[in-house]
Protein backbone atom coordinates (compact mmCIF):
# COMPACT_ATOMS: atom_id res chain seq x y z
CA UNK A 1 0.00 0.00 0.00
CA UNK A 2 2.84 2.39 0.85
CA UNK A 3 4.36 1.78 -2.58
CA UNK A 4 1.06 2.60 -4.27
CA UNK A 5 0.73 5.86 -2.36
CA UNK A 6 4.34 6.73 -3.20
CA UNK A 7 3.68 6.21 -6.90
CA UNK A 8 0.49 8.25 -6.75
CA UNK A 9 2.23 11.12 -4.98
CA UNK A 10 5.08 11.01 -7.51
CA UNK A 11 2.70 11.13 -10.44
CA UNK A 12 0.83 14.04 -8.88
CA UNK A 13 4.10 15.92 -8.41
CA UNK A 14 5.07 15.37 -12.04
CA UNK A 15 1.63 16.50 -13.20
CA UNK A 16 1.92 19.60 -11.02
CA UNK A 17 5.23 20.51 -12.64
CA UNK A 18 3.86 19.89 -16.12
CA UNK A 19 0.74 21.95 -15.47
CA UNK A 20 2.81 24.85 -14.16
CA UNK A 21 5.08 24.87 -17.20
CA UNK A 22 4.72 28.06 -19.28
CA UNK A 23 3.29 27.86 -22.77
CA UNK A 24 5.81 27.00 -25.52
CA UNK A 25 8.20 25.65 -22.89
CA UNK A 26 9.32 22.21 -21.81
CA UNK A 27 9.77 21.57 -18.11
CA UNK A 28 11.64 18.70 -16.59
CA UNK A 29 12.81 18.49 -13.02
CA UNK A 30 15.35 21.26 -12.66
CA UNK A 31 15.44 22.20 -16.37
CA UNK A 32 13.22 24.59 -18.33
CA UNK A 33 13.57 25.15 -22.07
CA UNK A 34 11.54 27.81 -23.90
CA UNK A 35 11.86 28.13 -27.67
CA UNK A 36 10.11 29.94 -30.50
CA UNK A 37 9.70 33.47 -31.87
CA UNK A 38 6.07 33.34 -30.79
CA UNK A 39 7.39 33.98 -27.25
CA UNK A 40 7.37 37.76 -26.81
CA UNK A 41 7.32 38.07 -23.01
CA UNK A 42 9.51 36.43 -20.41
CA UNK A 43 7.81 33.14 -19.41
CA UNK A 44 5.80 33.37 -16.20
CA UNK A 45 4.68 30.67 -13.74
CA UNK A 46 8.01 28.91 -13.50
CA UNK A 47 7.53 25.62 -11.59
CA UNK A 48 9.33 25.49 -8.23
CA UNK A 49 12.36 23.18 -7.96
CA UNK A 50 15.41 22.89 -5.74
CA UNK A 51 17.64 23.85 -8.66
CA UNK A 52 16.67 25.61 -11.88
CA UNK A 53 18.45 25.62 -15.22
CA UNK A 54 16.69 27.96 -17.64
CA UNK A 55 17.30 28.04 -21.42
CA UNK A 56 15.55 30.32 -23.92
CA UNK A 57 16.28 30.38 -27.65
CA UNK A 58 14.88 31.83 -30.87
CA UNK A 59 12.44 34.06 -29.00
CA UNK A 60 11.10 37.57 -29.59
CA UNK A 61 11.84 38.68 -26.03
CA UNK A 62 13.43 42.15 -26.26
CA UNK A 63 14.39 42.89 -22.65
CA UNK A 64 15.05 41.36 -19.25
CA UNK A 65 14.22 42.94 -15.89
CA UNK A 66 14.67 41.99 -12.21
CA UNK A 67 11.05 40.87 -11.74
CA UNK A 68 11.47 38.21 -14.44
CA UNK A 69 13.51 36.08 -12.03
CA UNK A 70 11.76 37.01 -8.79
CA UNK A 71 9.94 33.74 -8.13
CA UNK A 72 12.90 31.42 -8.73
CA UNK A 73 15.96 33.66 -8.23
CA UNK A 74 17.37 31.67 -5.33
CA UNK A 75 17.24 28.33 -7.15
CA UNK A 76 18.56 29.54 -10.52
CA UNK A 77 21.99 28.05 -11.30
CA UNK A 78 22.12 28.31 -15.10
CA UNK A 79 20.55 30.88 -17.41
CA UNK A 80 21.21 30.94 -21.16
CA UNK A 81 19.54 33.17 -23.76
CA UNK A 82 20.46 32.27 -27.33
CA UNK A 83 19.47 33.63 -30.74
CA UNK A 84 16.85 35.98 -29.34
CA UNK A 85 15.99 39.64 -29.83
CA UNK A 86 17.12 40.78 -26.39
CA UNK A 87 18.50 44.30 -26.70
CA UNK A 88 18.28 45.46 -23.07
CA UNK A 89 19.14 43.89 -19.75
CA UNK A 90 18.02 46.27 -17.04
CA UNK A 91 20.27 47.15 -14.08
CA UNK A 92 19.95 44.81 -11.08
CA UNK A 93 18.35 42.06 -13.19
CA UNK A 94 20.56 39.42 -11.58
CA UNK A 95 20.89 40.93 -8.10
CA UNK A 96 18.91 38.10 -6.47
CA UNK A 97 20.31 35.20 -8.51
CA UNK A 98 23.19 34.68 -6.12
CA UNK A 99 23.57 30.96 -6.86
CA UNK A 100 24.07 31.40 -10.59
CA UNK A 101 27.13 29.47 -11.79
CA UNK A 102 26.69 29.81 -15.57
CA UNK A 103 25.25 32.76 -17.51
CA UNK A 104 25.05 33.13 -21.27
CA UNK A 105 23.84 35.60 -23.89
CA UNK A 106 24.63 34.52 -27.43
CA UNK A 107 23.21 35.77 -30.71
CA UNK A 108 21.28 38.67 -29.18
CA UNK A 109 20.96 42.38 -29.98
CA UNK A 110 22.89 43.53 -26.90
CA UNK A 111 25.21 46.50 -27.55
CA UNK A 112 26.12 47.19 -23.92
CA UNK A 113 25.62 45.94 -20.38
CA UNK A 114 24.85 47.88 -17.17
CA UNK A 115 27.88 48.67 -15.04
CA UNK A 116 26.61 46.78 -11.98
CA UNK A 117 24.92 43.86 -13.74
CA UNK A 118 27.19 41.21 -12.21
CA UNK A 119 27.69 42.74 -8.77
CA UNK A 120 26.06 39.90 -6.81
CA UNK A 121 27.15 36.93 -8.92
CA UNK A 122 29.86 35.73 -6.56
CA UNK A 123 29.44 32.07 -7.59
CA UNK A 124 29.56 32.57 -11.37
CA UNK A 125 32.22 30.40 -13.03
CA UNK A 126 31.20 30.61 -16.71
CA UNK A 127 30.07 33.73 -18.58
CA UNK A 128 29.29 33.55 -22.30
CA UNK A 129 28.67 36.81 -24.17
CA UNK A 130 29.45 35.66 -27.71
CA UNK A 131 27.95 36.68 -31.04
CA UNK A 132 26.24 39.81 -29.78
CA UNK A 133 26.76 43.45 -30.73
CA UNK A 134 28.82 44.59 -27.75
CA UNK A 135 30.96 47.60 -28.65
CA UNK A 136 32.52 48.68 -25.34
CA UNK A 137 33.51 46.99 -22.09
CA UNK A 138 32.54 49.15 -19.13
CA UNK A 139 35.35 49.71 -16.58
CA UNK A 140 35.21 47.17 -13.76
CA UNK A 141 32.24 45.39 -15.36
CA UNK A 142 33.66 41.98 -14.50
CA UNK A 143 35.41 42.88 -11.23
CA UNK A 144 32.80 41.23 -8.94
CA UNK A 145 33.25 37.86 -10.68
CA UNK A 146 36.07 36.68 -8.45
CA UNK A 147 35.63 32.94 -9.16
CA UNK A 148 35.01 33.20 -12.91
CA UNK A 149 36.93 30.56 -14.88
CA UNK A 150 35.66 30.93 -18.46
CA UNK A 151 34.79 34.20 -20.24
CA UNK A 152 33.66 34.22 -23.87
CA UNK A 153 33.43 37.61 -25.61
CA UNK A 154 33.99 36.33 -29.13
CA UNK A 155 32.15 37.57 -32.22
CA UNK A 156 31.19 41.01 -30.96
CA UNK A 157 32.07 44.52 -32.15
CA UNK A 158 34.75 45.37 -29.60
CA UNK A 159 37.46 47.70 -30.91
CA UNK A 160 39.74 47.97 -27.87
CA UNK A 161 40.49 46.45 -24.48
CA UNK A 162 40.94 49.24 -21.93
CA UNK A 163 43.32 49.23 -18.98
CA UNK A 164 42.11 46.95 -16.18
CA UNK A 165 39.35 45.54 -18.41
CA UNK A 166 39.52 42.23 -16.57
CA UNK A 167 40.74 43.38 -13.17
CA UNK A 168 39.51 41.12 -10.39
CA UNK A 169 39.34 37.95 -12.49
CA UNK A 170 42.18 36.31 -10.63
CA UNK A 171 40.91 32.77 -11.28
CA UNK A 172 40.10 33.16 -14.97
CA UNK A 173 41.57 30.33 -17.06
CA UNK A 174 40.11 30.90 -20.52
CA UNK A 175 39.44 34.23 -22.26
CA UNK A 176 37.92 34.22 -25.74
CA UNK A 177 38.10 37.48 -27.72
CA UNK A 178 38.35 36.17 -31.27
CA UNK A 179 36.38 37.59 -34.20
CA UNK A 180 35.96 41.11 -32.87
CA UNK A 181 37.35 44.33 -34.35
CA UNK A 182 40.01 44.89 -31.70
CA UNK A 183 42.77 47.16 -32.98
CA UNK A 184 44.05 48.52 -29.67
CA UNK A 185 45.56 46.84 -26.64
CA UNK A 186 47.03 48.61 -23.63
CA UNK A 187 49.83 47.46 -21.36
CA UNK A 188 47.28 46.77 -18.61
CA UNK A 189 44.60 45.13 -20.74
CA UNK A 190 45.23 41.73 -19.14
CA UNK A 191 46.39 42.93 -15.75
CA UNK A 192 45.83 40.48 -12.92
CA UNK A 193 45.07 37.40 -15.05
CA UNK A 194 47.75 35.30 -13.40
CA UNK A 195 45.78 32.03 -13.73
CA UNK A 196 44.90 32.42 -17.41
CA UNK A 197 45.80 29.35 -19.47
CA UNK A 198 44.30 30.13 -22.89
CA UNK A 199 43.91 33.49 -24.64
CA UNK A 200 42.12 33.77 -27.98
CA UNK A 201 42.79 37.00 -29.92
CA UNK A 202 42.66 35.70 -33.49
CA UNK A 203 40.68 37.34 -36.29
CA UNK A 204 40.89 40.89 -34.98
CA UNK A 205 42.52 44.05 -36.37
CA UNK A 206 45.66 44.17 -34.25
CA UNK A 207 48.64 45.90 -35.85
CA UNK A 208 50.88 46.61 -32.86
CA UNK A 209 51.11 44.84 -29.53
CA UNK A 210 52.40 46.95 -26.63
CA UNK A 211 55.35 45.73 -24.62
CA UNK A 212 54.29 44.33 -21.27
CA UNK A 213 50.74 43.48 -22.28
CA UNK A 214 51.27 39.79 -21.48
CA UNK A 215 53.48 40.26 -18.41
CA UNK A 216 50.88 39.07 -15.88
CA UNK A 217 50.00 35.92 -17.85
CA UNK A 218 52.57 33.76 -16.10
CA UNK A 219 50.53 30.55 -16.44
CA UNK A 220 49.47 31.00 -20.06
CA UNK A 221 49.76 27.81 -22.13
CA UNK A 222 47.98 28.70 -25.40
CA UNK A 223 48.07 32.05 -27.23
CA UNK A 224 46.16 32.70 -30.45
CA UNK A 225 47.25 35.80 -32.39
CA UNK A 226 46.69 34.54 -35.93
CA UNK A 227 44.68 36.38 -38.58
CA UNK A 228 45.55 39.91 -37.48
CA UNK A 229 47.74 42.62 -39.04
CA UNK A 230 50.72 42.41 -36.69
CA UNK A 231 53.90 43.70 -38.35
CA UNK A 232 56.39 43.44 -35.49
CA UNK A 233 56.84 41.92 -32.05
CA UNK A 234 58.42 43.87 -29.15
CA UNK A 235 61.67 42.35 -27.92
CA UNK A 236 60.37 41.25 -24.50
CA UNK A 237 56.76 40.55 -25.48
CA UNK A 238 56.89 36.91 -24.36
CA UNK A 239 59.44 37.28 -21.55
CA UNK A 240 57.05 36.15 -18.78
CA UNK A 241 55.36 33.35 -20.73
CA UNK A 242 57.65 30.56 -19.57
CA UNK A 243 54.75 28.05 -19.50
CA UNK A 244 53.49 28.74 -23.02
CA UNK A 245 53.13 25.56 -25.09
CA UNK A 246 51.40 26.73 -28.27
CA UNK A 247 51.82 30.07 -30.05
CA UNK A 248 49.85 30.89 -33.19
CA UNK A 249 51.03 33.88 -35.25
CA UNK A 250 50.01 32.82 -38.74
CA UNK A 251 48.47 35.14 -41.32
CA UNK A 252 49.93 38.39 -40.02
CA UNK A 253 52.41 40.85 -41.57
CA UNK A 254 55.65 39.87 -39.88
CA UNK A 255 58.68 40.40 -42.11
CA UNK A 256 61.61 39.86 -39.75
CA UNK A 257 62.14 37.34 -36.95
CA UNK A 258 64.40 38.48 -34.13
CA UNK A 259 65.17 36.76 -30.83
CA UNK A 260 61.74 37.28 -29.25
CA UNK A 261 61.00 33.65 -28.40
CA UNK A 262 64.00 32.82 -26.19
CA UNK A 263 62.05 32.64 -22.92
CA UNK A 264 59.49 30.18 -24.26
CA UNK A 265 61.22 27.19 -22.71
CA UNK A 266 58.05 25.04 -22.69
CA UNK A 267 56.90 25.84 -26.24
CA UNK A 268 55.92 22.81 -28.34
CA UNK A 269 54.27 24.41 -31.36
CA UNK A 270 55.18 27.67 -33.10
CA UNK A 271 53.11 28.69 -36.12
CA UNK A 272 54.56 31.57 -38.17
CA UNK A 273 53.06 30.60 -41.51
CA UNK A 274 51.40 32.98 -43.97
CA UNK A 275 53.39 36.08 -43.04
CA UNK A 276 55.88 38.15 -45.03
CA UNK A 277 59.03 36.83 -43.37
CA UNK A 278 62.12 37.39 -45.51
CA UNK A 279 64.83 36.79 -42.94
CA UNK A 280 65.29 34.80 -39.74
CA UNK A 281 68.04 36.18 -37.54
CA UNK A 282 70.57 33.76 -36.03
CA UNK A 283 69.42 32.62 -32.61
CA UNK A 284 65.77 33.39 -33.30
CA UNK A 285 64.80 29.96 -31.98
CA UNK A 286 67.58 29.41 -29.45
CA UNK A 287 66.51 28.08 -26.08
CA UNK A 288 63.35 26.39 -27.35
CA UNK A 289 64.45 23.03 -26.00
CA UNK A 290 60.97 21.45 -26.13
CA UNK A 291 59.89 22.76 -29.53
CA UNK A 292 58.43 19.92 -31.59
CA UNK A 293 56.82 21.67 -34.55
CA UNK A 294 57.52 24.92 -36.37
CA UNK A 295 55.61 26.21 -39.37
CA UNK A 296 57.18 28.79 -41.69
CA UNK A 297 55.36 27.96 -44.90
CA UNK A 298 53.90 30.62 -47.21
CA UNK A 299 56.37 33.38 -46.40
CA UNK A 300 59.06 35.13 -48.48
CA UNK A 301 62.09 33.19 -47.35
CA UNK A 302 64.83 32.57 -49.91
CA UNK A 303 67.50 31.18 -47.58
CA UNK A 304 67.51 29.26 -44.31
CA UNK A 305 70.83 30.06 -42.66
CA UNK A 306 73.11 27.35 -41.33
CA UNK A 307 72.39 26.30 -37.75
CA UNK A 308 69.10 28.16 -37.57
CA UNK A 309 67.47 25.17 -35.83
CA UNK A 310 70.52 24.27 -33.77
CA UNK A 311 69.84 23.22 -30.19
CA UNK A 312 66.26 22.05 -30.75
CA UNK A 313 66.49 18.38 -29.73
CA UNK A 314 62.73 17.74 -29.75
CA UNK A 315 62.06 19.23 -33.19
CA UNK A 316 60.41 16.71 -35.53
CA UNK A 317 58.28 18.82 -37.84
CA UNK A 318 59.46 21.76 -39.96
CA UNK A 319 57.22 23.29 -42.61
CA UNK A 320 58.75 25.77 -45.09
CA UNK A 321 56.95 25.09 -48.37
CA UNK A 322 55.48 27.86 -50.52
CA UNK A 323 58.17 30.46 -49.98
CA UNK A 324 59.67 32.85 -52.56
CA UNK A 325 60.85 32.50 -55.19
CA UNK A 326 59.10 29.19 -55.91
CA UNK A 327 61.24 26.04 -55.68
CA UNK A 328 64.41 27.90 -54.71
CA UNK A 329 64.46 28.09 -50.92
CA UNK A 330 67.89 26.82 -49.86
CA UNK A 331 68.40 24.68 -46.77
CA UNK A 332 72.11 24.32 -45.88
CA UNK A 333 73.67 21.06 -44.78
CA UNK A 334 73.94 22.00 -41.10
CA UNK A 335 70.60 23.77 -40.83
CA UNK A 336 69.82 21.68 -37.76
CA UNK A 337 73.27 22.23 -36.31
CA UNK A 338 74.51 18.69 -36.75
CA UNK A 339 72.01 17.37 -34.25
CA UNK A 340 72.10 13.92 -35.78
CA UNK A 341 68.42 13.77 -36.57
CA UNK A 342 67.11 10.24 -36.82
CA UNK A 343 65.90 8.87 -40.14
CA UNK A 344 62.31 9.14 -38.97
CA UNK A 345 62.70 12.80 -38.02
CA UNK A 346 64.57 13.68 -41.17
CA UNK A 347 62.02 12.01 -43.41
CA UNK A 348 59.31 14.15 -41.85
CA UNK A 349 61.29 17.29 -42.64
CA UNK A 350 61.92 16.30 -46.25
CA UNK A 351 58.30 15.36 -46.83
CA UNK A 352 57.11 18.71 -45.57
CA UNK A 353 59.75 20.72 -47.42
CA UNK A 354 58.88 19.06 -50.70
CA UNK A 355 58.90 22.31 -52.68
CA UNK A 356 62.27 23.52 -51.37
CA UNK A 357 65.76 22.71 -52.60
CA UNK A 358 67.48 20.51 -50.01
CA UNK A 359 71.23 21.01 -50.06
CA UNK A 360 73.63 18.50 -48.56
CA UNK A 361 71.09 16.60 -46.43
CA UNK A 362 70.52 12.94 -47.08
CA UNK A 363 68.56 10.20 -45.40
CA UNK A 364 70.83 7.48 -44.11
CATH topology of the largest domain: Leucine-rich repeat, LRR (right-handed beta-alpha superhelix)
The major beta sheet can be summarized as:
14 strands, mixed
Q: Helix/strand-derived class?
A: mainly beta
Give the topology string: H per helix, E per strand. Answer: HEEEEEEEEEEEEEEEEEEEEEHE
Q: What's the CATH H-level superfamily name of the largest domain?
A: Ribonuclease Inhibitor
Report the principal-axis shape.
Answer: elongated
The helical percent reads under 10%
The count of DSSP E runs of length 2 or more, i.e. the number of strands, is 22
**Largest sheet, spatial ordering of strands:** 1-2-3-5-7-8-9-11-13-14-15-17-19-20
CATH class membership of the largest domain = Alpha Beta
Q: What average pLDDT do the residues reach?
A: 87
Number of alpha- plus pi-helical segments: 2
- Beta-strand residue percentage: 15-25%
> What is the CATH architecture annotation of the largest domain?
Alpha-Beta Horseshoe
Extract low-pLDDT stretches.
3-18, 340-364
- The end-to-end distance, rounded to whole angstroms, is 84 Å
* Number of separate domains: 3
Which radius of gyration do the C-alpha atoms yield? 27 Å
Amino acid sequence: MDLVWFMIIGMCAMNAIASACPENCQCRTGKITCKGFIIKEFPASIPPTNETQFFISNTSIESLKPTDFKTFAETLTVFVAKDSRIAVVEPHTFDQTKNLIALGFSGTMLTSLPQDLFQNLKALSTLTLSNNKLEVLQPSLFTPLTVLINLDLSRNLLTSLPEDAFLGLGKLEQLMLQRNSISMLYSGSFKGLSHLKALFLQQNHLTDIPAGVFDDLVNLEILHLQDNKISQLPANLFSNLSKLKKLYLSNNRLSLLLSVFSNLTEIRLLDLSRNQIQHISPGAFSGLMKLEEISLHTNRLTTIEAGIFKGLPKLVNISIENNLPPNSTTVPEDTCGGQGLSKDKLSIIIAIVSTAVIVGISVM
